[in-house]
Structure of asparagine synthase (glutamine-hydrolyzing):
Amino acid sequence: MCGIAGWVDYDRDLRAERDVALAMTETMSCRGPDAEGLWTEPHAALGHRRLAIIDIEGGRQPMAAEHDGRVLAVLTYSGEVYNFRELRAELAARGHRFRTESDTEVVLEAYLEWGEDFVDRFNGMYAFAIWDARREELLLVRDRMGIKPLYYYPTPSGVLFGSEPKAILANPLAERVVDADGLRELLAFVKTPESAVYRGMYEVRPGQIVRVRREGLTKRRYWRLESREHTDDLPTTISTIRGLLDDIVGRQLISDVPLCTLLSGGLDSSAVTALAARSLGSTKVRSFSVDFAGYTENFQPDTMRDTPDGPYVKDVVEHIGADHTDIVLNSADLMNPVVRAAALRARDIPAGMGDMDTSLYLLFKAIRERSTVALSGESADEVFGGYRWFHDPETVNAGTFPWLATVGVGHRNGLTTLFDEPLLRKLDIPAYRADAYQQALAEVESLPGEGGLQKRMREVSHMHLTRFVQILLDRKDRMSMAVGLEVRVPFCDHRLVEYVFNTPWAMKTFDGREKSLLRAATQDVLPRSVVERRKSPYPSTQDPAYERALQAETARLLGRDDLALAPLLDLTKARNVLDHEVGTTSLQENRTAMEQFVQFNAWMEEYGVRVTI
């Protein structure tokens, strides 16, 4: 896994802009600590920071393909193509010769063989840029599910691009401006496709190719989630899912560096860990989990979590014989200003997830000391219908994104509750959400004769797989790559996503529970406690000391005369959040406004953001 950056400009000689291109590339050093490369020609500069996973010596980038001393195409690539060995064999049979053992070279040669259609052959997670020197055009490509990020910023005579916004913002041509729509996107919690918050910047949509020519920029979607008839019966469906999972996990265990799994004790991560253990055979699977000091002993159920993770993690470890490590954090760790600043820099925007971001960053930082690659259970809830709101008729039929209609989701008590009323009226976030919802609905294709609950659940599943999952994949990518850890997500394999998406809702809930198909497909490798466990999200600290520290930081900021966020706030409402009395247990939903307030202000100050409404 790596970080990429680049610049195409048809009106200037970019060989004279090498220092700027290097500065853009250097912002990606966190994603690629092992090596750096920059390739330039008059109208293109491609940068690369490498995290070496496969073919440590041979996979250096940017990688150029040449013929008779002439450069044909150059690739800067982030990701993994899990079927690269099969593709390599096919390309070799067609006459291609390989200098390395890397999947990078396979991607480059595949482009030379099949052109733009090469993406249809890839199974993996990737974001890359190819400069076709013969045509003087750039291709920006992102994987089907959007596991790996890719942003771009059109200019009057070309484009800037990078794995993260910070790479683009390092170029003087990019403005650090957020307009009304950018602010709406930050606050609405809807994840509009292609929106990148910063004015003039865009995100390559999952399954999309952006082509840049001298004449301008064009976009094409090479993959989208399609509705198809499901003809398999229940036993065949369960068997097919298990076969897919065995193949997916087996492929994603390929690595030339130490590998592990993320284990929370939930069904998803436990299934991945157990299947990885089975695939590894006599080699013990290494696993990691995050916990908070005193969390299990003092745990109180909340609207989203019935039980702590610890006991279930222990059951899985004992059941499969994993080599396991618990990463235990305390409130001082979570409030450490250095850590909080690192989490903000990783995201480039104030995502507002508070301790859930900082704890994930610290977990990944600790894992990186022992492993370079980790397998995660992320996205199983979106694929199999695991969230509690999937199974609440009132929420499902609320006429908006279900996660916005769910009790306990922190956006209800977030930063907008502190905003100035005239600003809130101007932003009209409810209307923005309604428009985003209608846009998402319009993308769903119903099958002939499909109606009622099945039609609605197809819509709900589609929205989760194209909108909500992006919020979580973004978070996991940024926090892991901030410390140079590659996280793989088996449940995002497009074959599995397509198959399960088209499975009838009645079959997905055949035993009256959430994720029925995943339970049935993996129960033979899991302890009974995990098979029976109800969905529990990523943990959030309940330590009242953390909330008190957050209150103190909020009060300190509100006492400043130069508060960057002040023009957006109703300061009376902002000060009122300090009136909340901290109880013996601190709940995440009671801290959301403060978390977002502190982080949003830090972002405006550190990034020098100018908000224009």
